[in-house]
Amino acid sequence: MKITLIGTGYVGLVTGTCLAEVGNDVLCLDVDPRKIDLLKSGGIPIFEPGLDDLVRRNVAAGRLQFTTDIEAAVHFGDIQFIAVGTPPDEDGSADLQYVTAAARNIGRHMTGYKLVVDKSTVPVGTADRVRAAIREELGSRGVDIDFSVASNPEFLKEGAAIEDFMKPDRIVIGTDNEQATQLLRRLYAPFQRNHERLVTMDIRSAELTKYAANAMLATRISFMNELAVLAEKLGADIELVRQGIGSDPRIGYHFLYAGCGYGGSCFPKDVQALRRTAEESGAPLRVLNAVEEANEAQKSVLITKLKARFGEALAGRRFALWGLAFKPNTDDMREAPSRVMMEALWAMGASVTAYDPAAMEETHRIYGDRPDLTLVDTPMKALADADALLIVTEWKAFRSPDFAAMKSLLKAPVIFDGRNLYDPATIQREGFEYYPIGRRV
Ligand SMILES: NC(=O)c1ccc[n+]([C@@H]2O[C@H](COP(=O)([O-])OP(=O)(O)OC[C@H]3O[C@@H](n4cnc5c(N)ncnc54)[C@H](O)[C@@H]3O)[C@@H](O)[C@H]2O)c1
Fold first, then answer.
1. Domain that holds residue 347
2. Is the entire prediction scored with pTM above 0.90?
3. For the chain, what is the domain count?
């Protein structure tokens, strides 16, 4: 099949590449010429395990191409995926300007039937807006060309995106006509040879499903984070509580880890956008107000512990940070807790030496050169002369470090662990002062 991806970011590039891998002809469009130039010259604009090999292989096979030429991209694909960003608007609702622009471009240039598929995370009713924008453009051209609009929200996780796309738990498809359903069924057939994974529904339900999934996951995290704060007050251990409740199959173990807050390009904005939709519809989701509030508070939990230990006048102090990305296996820093922590430390006069296996360039892009931020290329180098270590992202490489070497490098053996990586008894035996989240120490 001939497929166009409109938007070549995390979702567009992964989707396009995986669809090419199973034999489709794919053209990825982006309005950012630097991104397209980089891809054309063999580079990969994002860090995503396994993606570079897959892109190279499919480009070499002639199945995957990149362009900034909007007209060519619209002509190319029988299926046009819209995978552009939907960042939060000032009031928290999803900003649909990029989705609408993509839809208008399709209406402006299409000459035959197109199936337009919203893959971006978009509020309920967006398919109607996409349809209206295309119709308006066709109208102003004075032509009447058949097209359909469908919703196919994406559930891939950054850091495991290829695996998620190639072996999805489910593929949600919202359509209002059989032709569109059949086309998408054919497109996704290679990804469900083992068993049926397609969940078909109406468009509005599909649009809501994506928000409901992210809001549910964010709710689990915030619930556990608040419970961790309570556990500390009560002298209980959140890790034991997690195991105790996770063993119940109605609850399960996933997404029950207490930590220093969720971030990333999805949960914060999707929770906000769903709240906004709910308020506007007169059916407020009160639980989500608490989810958001708890998360904002949680991003400062390590800093609160640090202030209790070192006081608030931190001028002259230096802190080591392990982990900058909002989660492991990505370089994505959007809404990352590390940013809240670094900014709080800087505001109190401290400086930061930080290490992350993937997000150093991104950190430098965001903060530039500044005297109170030093980026180093190994975790151990970050510790030299630091008053304490803050662990912010649970990269595997941080799980079993050389504690003796760490002790000799740090000014004092103090660890604030925002991801509960270590067993409190063991690390205390190693001679560290240890401040985890919700654990008994
Ligand atoms: N990142 C994730 O893990 C993830 C997972 C599931 C769903 N989503 C959703 O998918 C959507 C895309 O997310 P992302 O992380 O890939 O975003 P991104 O910011 O990485 O990529 C979006 C791309 O779209 C391009 N673009 C904007 N307007 C365009 C236009 N008119 N024509 C062509 N290209 C255009 C931008 O230049 C950018 O490269 C969002 O709605 C997001 O919520 C993201």
1. 299-435
2. yes
3. 3
